[in-house]
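Pilot study result, target chain (122 residues):
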Amino acid sequence: MTELERRLAFLAEIDKMKCIYRKNIVIDRSRNEDDASHSWHMAMCALVLADYAPKELDMLTVLKMCLVHDLVEIYAGDTYCYDTAAHADKAERERKAADKLFAMLPEEQGSEFRTLWEKFDA
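Predicted structure:
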């Protein structure tokens, strides 16, 4: 598979984020939020509020972290913050998901995304 084919396959795979529903609801209370909407809104919050961040903050890195932070939930599922039982194996589920998902990309890009995800998780 070429690098372009790997990237396109990854993009098709992460479309599944639109089908990972979270426990919280959207502002108009019409539905549960999905992971893709959550990540997009988080990135928009970072952009809109950027003027309030320290000037030395690398906004491109912040935006990348916003967009990759929940990608592993495609395989690991969303773990509700108050679900103590689900938290017991969350780290292992997400690590396995990261192994699988980021390996789809060319090595350098997959490594970058994995590092961003790990930094955000930490």
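One observation from the pilot: The longest strand covers residues 21-25. A full batch analysis is planned for the follow-on phase.
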